[in-house]
Amino acid sequence: MIQLQTRFKQINWPRLFSSWKALGPGKVAGAWLLALALLLLPAGVVLLKANPAAAAIPTFRIVQVVQDQSVTIETANFPANQRFQATMGQYGTQGIGGIAVGALNSEAGGTLTATFNIPAQLKGQARLAIRLQTSQANPYFAYNWFHNSTAGGAGGSTPPPPAGYSGIPTFRIVDVAKDQSVTIETTNFPANQSFKVTMGQFGTKGIGGIEVGTLASGAGGKLTATYNIPDPLKGQARLALRAQTAHANPYFAYNWFYNNDDNVPPPGGTGGGPEPAPGYTGIPTIRVTAVKANESVTFETNNFPPNQTFTVLLGRIGSRGINGFVAGQFSSGAGGTMSMTVNIPAQLHGLDRMAIRTQTAHQFPYFSFNWFDNTTTP
């Protein structure tokens, strides 16, 4: 069962990588991803562990908004003696090509506070992007976004989550009564949100499914709820379940389950490859632990389902490894955490950065992906 959360905003990776390169080589690429996830609050997907190299990345947070008038920011780890141009634009643009709203001289660097007026052209917008960038060929830059509301908030018709919420809301299946009900347990749900719960055919991720109830997240975190299986879906071998808020950019989570008592796979499985152990839930992830430039990459898995065959694919940065060059194959065995090393295909030698992907051959596969610098490390 794959659970994904795609609320994380689209990132301009080529510009981002160019900026990082100017700051100096990092030894662990995952540190950079973690720093970026912290920048793009309230939500982000983090697959790698942090590293002190992340200290080289300038970031800023939103500390105050006066609707249609101004936004106040607080920087972190800004380089000294730099002049940053501030631009503001439509939400989703990352401030690229936006309207100039002022400048910030970093002086001694580190933590600074600045306030910028919201230009007339952007007044009335629900959300806005703001960017600070120097004028070098390989500039320092940071960006963020904010709700154009004095009271703040996450948009839509429900109250905002607590300040600082981040991560991926997920849920697991804890009990099934065939053709009657399913019970779930959530993890890391944002507080004070109203989730609509829908159920549908296996493979739909619950999108466009039959509404079976709601979930008020209250204090958030770990919650338990039970939903009845609607008549049109009774008799189905597997079903999809989804919980989603009504925001334009919603919080959501989904999963699937066997429609039989205790969610147990039927004898012989359902085709497409061996079935995982009953009760497996969560998201399989990988992190890169070592690289030999143009030779090999070593990665460590986390929360992998057992008894699955994964193909390892390598490709150009930004491709997520989709349709990449086959670099190896492995069996997940007992699942969980394991370490693998594969050779870098000759077609990719000389590239600065690469994408790596692991994926099963099912119609609805298990998969995970990441990226790494093609530089020998550690």
Tell me the layout of helices and strands.
Layout: H1 13-23, H2 29-39, E1 59-66, E2 70-76, E3 83-90, E4 99-105, E5 113-117, E6 127-133, E7 141-147, E8 170-177, E9 181-187, E10 194-201, E11 210-216, E12 224-228, E13 238-244, E14 252-258, E15 285-292, E16 296-302, E17 309-316, E18 325-331, E19 339-343, E20 353-359, E21 367-373
Antiparallel strand pairs: 1-2, 2-5, 3-4, 3-6, 6-7, 8-9, 9-12, 10-11, 10-13, 13-14, 15-16, 16-19, 17-18, 17-20, 20-21
In summary, what is this structure?
The chain has 378 residues and is mainly beta. The chain has helices at 13-23, 29-39; strands at residues 59-66, 70-76, 83-90, 99-105, 113-117, 127-133, 141-147, 170-177, 181-187, 194-201, 210-216, 224-228, 238-244, 252-258, 285-292, 296-302, 309-316, 325-331, 339-343, 353-359, 367-373.
What do these coordinates show?
There is one protein chain. The protein has 3 domains: 13-147, Immunoglobulin-like (Sandwich); 170-263, Immunoglobulin-like (Sandwich), CATH 2.60.40; 285-373, chitin-binding protein cbp21 (Coagulation Factor XIII, Chain A, domain 1). The longest helix has 11 residues, at 13-23. It is mainly beta. A hairpin with a 3-residue loop joins strand 1 (59-66) and strand 2. It is built from 2 helices and 21 strands. Mean pLDDT is 79; it is low at 1-10, 18-55, 152-158 and 268-273. The strands form 6 sheets. The protein has a 4-stranded antiparallel sheet with strand order 4-3-6-7, with no helix packed on it.
